[in-house]
Specification:
The complex is a heterodimer of chains A (about 230) and B (about 800). Chain A is an alpha+beta fold. Chain A has a single domain, classed as NADH Oxidase, CATH 3.40.109.40. Chain A is built from nine helices and eight strands. In chain A, strands 1-2-5-8 form a four-stranded antiparallel beta sheet, sandwiched between helices. Chain A has a two-stranded antiparallel sheet with strand order 3-4. In chain A, strands 6-7 form a two-stranded antiparallel sheet. Chain A is elongated. In chain B, strand 21, helix 26 and strand 22 form a beta-alpha-beta unit. Chain B has about 800 residues and is of the alpha/beta class. Helices cover about 45% and strands about 15% of the residues of chain B. Chain B contains 30 helices and 25 strands. Chain B folds into four domains: about 280 residues, Homocysteine-binding-like domain (TIM Barrel, Alpha-Beta Barrel); about 290 residues, TIM Barrel, CATH 3.20.20.20; about 90 residues, Methyltransferase, Methionine Synthase (B12-binding Domains), Chain A, domain 1 (Orthogonal Bundle), CATH 1.10.1240.10; about 120 residues, Rossmann fold (3-Layer(aba) Sandwich), CATH 3.40.50. Classes of the chains: A alpha+beta (about 230), B alpha/beta (about 800).
Chain lengths: ~230, ~800
């Protein structure tokens, strides 16, 4: 990535570079309990209100409902060891067609993505997953203990988002060091960028072989706690 | 020469990576490599010839992704034929002097099977079958199934090979750094399943380098009685100047392989990042070694999609509760297709500590083959315990074995010719560990000797089908001592003789012994102890019985089967303080805490203890209090006066945003616990379930597999007493309509999570309007909005479960 950013900065990317996916396995990122609750249906504002009084006015880490707090602990314990943290990415020069739409190593035509990638010279395209273990757990609990199932859903979402955040922080840092700016990441399904771009995007990242991500007929990813995203760099 | 004959005395050297070399030759990311068989045959031939030159005995034809999901029939046939033409050219042109074979290479379809994905197991079998038939016709010497990261997918591929050709078949799985397949299987689990289905060689490829796969290989060698293979990557990929490079080079790679060959691996090659140089180094190292003979490990294994259970070293508990015999509530659940109840019985037994679940769903008025398939599939989606398929109907047995994700236990055969001839072929095809009852046409012999004689007969017959002794477990039948006080002695002696004389595992349904006597658990558990001492390998039993669990844990501790008595201590610490003497049952595993008023009275004064338990989501308390109330109060009064008002309070709090979804669900769980007690009570009376509210058909629409939202709505509706018919997820449009028509249901709920599946919802509504114009349709789901709902012609958009309840009440009132 570093070499890519250096060349991007120097303006020496030709667009003819070979695009080869880089694959990484990450250590467990730190757990964010209030994010789990947020994904499980607790509005952020409530969590913030309950968290008042803490230094930095952060989200609450322990809900005031004791039974819920106990259940959340149980769920976190239950899910221990169920996650893997895998991510694969490619770096590519960002081209533009005649109308100024971005040209990427996978086909798309999106006004919203065009806007997101304004002033960008390159992109990092990524796929990440926390594995199928959490899906198995969700299966196990969603019908017999739906509250546990819901919290597991929340935890899976928190895990994969935190994994991508970790990578995103690395990207931001590397860009900053080089005087570049990383744009907010953008995913298929946002705005007018359809999820039908997923097959090409995943193929590009060798996501099936490297990460075990497959798509179903409706373009949903399995494992379900997987993310694809595009980070513009300018 | 046949590859199996060659393999008998020789190592087999496989080829190395293909993808990396094709990329170097100009294959673009995303381009399908199989097309190169036709567009760039010279590149394919060049690479494959260099592998034969390097010493490969087996080169894989370039057919890894050649399947009907990626290519149409015509192109598929063309690409596979071209692949074999190329490989044959490479073989003919190679200067290598070794034996050479060409394999049909089969990789995963790229679609995850149900329950985690949306692809049907049988569709996968059909898809692989097409590739197998074409490859066999094109002249393959063997089939090589590889890089499979899901056990179920692996089973589908192997089944397709077995059903469509007679070629030898090697099966290789891709393990993660945790030593498991992506969907959870351990190497031992794969050994059990694949050997049961007669794979000729098994092992691992891809994902990792040879050193990281040592643990996986050791597990294979420990369990496998067939040759073991390895085809690892050239280490781990890493980023070097924007290129992926692998960190293990031919000298270290071949050295690592050499160590594995010395340990007993018989077949080796390379995967991603390896080149002919790697293979040459491996072939040279192998030439200097003598192959370790492959021996029968003689282990009695069954497996689930994650792990094996072994019979012999330590007694195994098989939970008997999934069985309608004598259980009114279970029969009711079967008749109503109340799968959740059946799953609940499985999960409770798992929590109680059984290692295997017996599954018996035979009831005269239900379609047993369909039900056993459904229950087996549902159970293996929620529990990782291996299953014992328990049916006397061979058709049902085959349905169960076919869809089972692993190697199942088969219950049962006996000494009757007719029964053996029906069941043994199924076991020979699908694999299995068979319970054999020592009875035959002449009935159950009284003496132990006669039962042993029948066992010998069964062993002989099984061997005619290639089923070894290690895959049999004998049940010498426990008979009640209330009819004949010598009965237990005969059984105990037979257990001893079969285990120690014949050297085969034994199992008993122990509880029969006490039939007709008071305080049966005392007799049953003592009998259990006596037979364990004679070498009983397994018992089909009630895990909620403390007496039985006491014997089991004490026996293991006394027999040096429980290191440091750790398990026993943990068990003892979790025992309730006082077990009533001669207690019949521990009840549900969760019901062990005393009933009573809730601690810390946070509830409002107007709220009763049961209501407080429900509102706060205290499941155990809700169940316990309900049990107490049922002693004096009519079941329906509890529903009307306690449960519904409590749900209303939570529902209102939810609507007013005083509580949120997790809390609503916790309350629903607690009320479900109360309802379960009420249902149990009502099942005792003749009318069964009692009156229900109007029917409500609910489904996640075609193409959509995420159903958490729908399940939440279903649960809350059920709590409010609606007769909910849940059709599941990914439900075809017409299926919804048919159900609505069948029930004349006044209301239908449809859920869609994705914009891509909203058209399926629209189509379902259109068909409903045509064929069931009376039905009101409410829609919901992540992408739904009022605007969307209006556009596709729904009657109502409900934001959440409570709104759906209110709407259903409104519709019901207007009927």
């Amino acid at each position: 990535m570093k070499e890519f950013l250096e060349r991007l900065k120097a303006g020496s990317l030709t667009g003819n570079e070979k695009i080869i996916p880089i694959y990484n396995e990450y250590d467990k990122p730190e757990l964010n309990r209030s994010e789990i609750l947020r994904y499980a249906g607790f509005p952020a504002a409530v969590l913030r209100a309950q968290g008042k009084g803490k230094k930095d006015d952060s989200f609450c880490e322990v809900p005031t409902d004791e039974e819920l707090a106990r259940r959340l602990d149980e769920v976190i314990e239950l899910a221990k060891g169920q996650f893997i943290y895998r991510l694969s990415y490619v770096c590519a020069k960002l081209g533009r067609d005649d109308e100024g739409y971005p040209v990427l190593p996978f086909e798309q035509h999106s006004d919203d993505l065009k806007k997101n990638l304004e002033n960008c010279e390159g992109v990092i395209i990524l796929a990440a997953t926390v594995g199928a273990g959490i899906d198995r757990l969700i299966r196990r609990y969603e019908r017999t203990e739906p509250a546990t199932g819901l919290l597991l859903q929340g935890m899976g979402a928190e895990r994969v988002e935190t994994l991508v955040d970790t990578f995103n922080d690395e990207v931001n840092k590397a860009c900053e060091d080089m005087g570049l700016k990383a744009h907010p990441r953008y995913s298929p399904g946002y705005g007018d960028l359809p999820i039908t771009v997923q097959p090409d995007l995943l193929k590009l990242l060798e996501a099936e072989k490297r990460l075990g991500i497959t798509l179903n007929a409706s373009y949903m990813m399995s494992p379900s706690k997987s993310v694809t995203a595009i980070i513009g760099i300018g | 020469m046949n590859i199996l004959d060659f393999m008998h005395d020789n190592f087999i050297i496989l080829d190395g990576g293909m993808g990396t070399l094709l990329q170097e030759a100009g294959l673009k990311p995303g381009e399908l490599p199989e097309r190169w068989n036709v567009t760039h045959p010279e590149e394919i031939i060049r690479i494959q010839r260099s592998y034969f030159d390097a010493g490969s005995n087996v080169v894989l034809a370039n057919t890894f992704g050649a399947n009907c999901l990626k290519f149409d029939d015509e192109e598929l046939t063309q690409l596979i034929n071209a692949a074999f033409d190329n490989a044959r050219r490479a073989k003919a042109e190679s200067s290598g002097k070794q034996e050479k074979f060409i394999a049909l290479d089969i990789g995963p379809l790229g679609r995850l099977l149900k329950p985690y994905g949306d692809y049907e197991f049988e569709d996968a079998v059909s898809a692989y079958a097409k590739t197998v038939r074409t490859g066999a016709a094109a002249g393959a010497d063997l089939v090589f199934i590889e890089t499979m990261n899901d056990s179920y997918d692996t089973k589908a591929a192997l089944l397709a090979v077995k059903e469509n050709c007679d070629l030898p078949v090697f099966v290789s799985n891709a393990y993660g750094s945790d030593g498991k397949l992506m969907t959870g299987a351990s190497p031992a689990a794969m050994v059990a399943m694949l050997e049961g289905m007669h794979a000729d060689a098994i092992g691992a490829n891809c994902s990792l380098g040879p050193d990281q796969l040592i643990g996986v290989m050791e597990e294979y060698l420990e369990y496998a009685s067939v040759p073991v293979l390895i085809k690892p990557n050239a280490g781990l990929p890493r980023d070097e100047g924007g290129k992926t490079v692998y960190d293990v080079y031919p000298p270290e790679f071949s050295e690592a392989i050499k160590k594995l060959l010395e340990k007993g691996v018989r077949i080796a090659g390379g995967c991603c990042g390896t080149t002919p140089d790697y293979i040459k180094a491996v072939a040279e190292k192998a030439a200097a070694l003598k192959p370790v003979p492959v021996t029968d490990k003689n282990r009695s294994l069954i497996s689930s999609y994650t792990h094996v259970v072994e019979f012999g070293p330590s007694p195994i508990l098989i939970g008997e509760r999934i069985n309608p015999t004598g259980k009114k509530r279970f029969q009711q659940a079967l008749r109503e297709s109340d799968i959740d109840y059946i799953l609940g019985e499985g999960l409770k037994q798992a929590d109680a500590g059984v290692q295997v679940l017996d599954v018996n769903v035979g009831l005269p008025e239900i379609d047993e083959p369909a039900m056993i398939e459904r229950v087996a599939k549902e159970l293996q989606a929620v529990t990782d315990l291996p299953l014992q398929l328990d049916t006397s109907d061979p058709v049902a047995m085959e349905r169960g074995l076919r869809c089972y994700n692993g190697k199942a236990m088969v219950n049962s055969v006996n000494g009757k010719e007719e029964v053996m001839e029906a069941v043994f072929p199924l076991v020979a095809k699908y694999g299995g560990f068979v319970v054999a009852l020592t009875l035959d046409e002449g009935g159950i012999p009284e003496s132990a000797q006669e039962r042993v004689r029948i066992a010998e007969k069964i062993i002989r017959k099984a061997s005619e089908y290639g089923i070894a002794k290690k895959n049999l477990i004998f049940d010498p039948l426990a008979m009640t001592i209330s009819a004949d006080t010598k009965a237990a002695l005969a059984t105990i002696e037979a257990v001893h003789e079969i285990r120690h004389g014949l050297g085969v595992n034994t199992s008993l349904g122990v509880s029969n012994v006490s039939f007709g006597l008071p305080s049966r658990n005392i007799i049953t558990s003592t009998f259990f102890a006596l037979t364990l001492e004679q070498g009983l390998s397994a018992a089909i039993m009630n895990p909620y019985s403390y007496e039985m669990m006491n014997v089991y844990h004490a026996f293991k501790a006394l027999h040096d089967l429980d290191a440091n008595c750790t398990e026993y201590i943990e068990y003892a610490q979790n025992l309730p303080a006082q077990v009533p003497a001669g207690s019949q049952s521990a009840g549900a595993a969760s019901g062990t805490q005393g009933a009573g008023s809730p601690q810390g009275s946070g509830g409002k004064p107007a709220v009763s203890p049961l209501q407080n338990a429900i509102i706060r989501g205290l499941k155990e308390q809700a169940g316990n209090i309900t049990r107490e109330l049922l002693k004096e109060t009519a079941p329906l009064d509890i529903v009307q006066q306690e449960v519904i008002p409590a749900l209303d309070i939570v529902g209102k709090d939810f609507e007013e945003k005083k509580v949120y979804l997790p809390q609503l669900l916790m309350a629903a769980e607690a009320s479900k616990e109360a309802f379960e007690e009420i249902k149990k009570e009502m099942a005792k009376s003749a009318d069964g379930g009692g009156p229900k509210r109007c029917s409500f058909v609910i489904a996640t629409v075609h193409g959509d597999i995420h159903d958490i939202g729908k399940n939440i709505v279903k649960l809350i509706l059920e709590n409010y007493g609606f007769d909910v018919h849940d059709l599941g997820k990914d439900v075809p449009e017409q299926t919804v309509v048919d159900k609505v028509v069948e029930l004349h249901a006044p209301i239908v709920g449809l859920s869609a999570l994705m914009t891509t599946t909203v058209p399926a919802m629209e189509e379902t509504i259109r068909l409903l309007r045509e064929q069931a114009p009376w039905a009101k349709v409410t829609v919901g789901g992540a992408v739904m909005t009022q605007e969307y709902a209006d556009r596709i012609g729904a009657d109502k958009y409900c934001r959440d479960a409570m709104e759906t309840v209110r709407y259903a009440e409104e519709v019901e009132k207007s009927l």
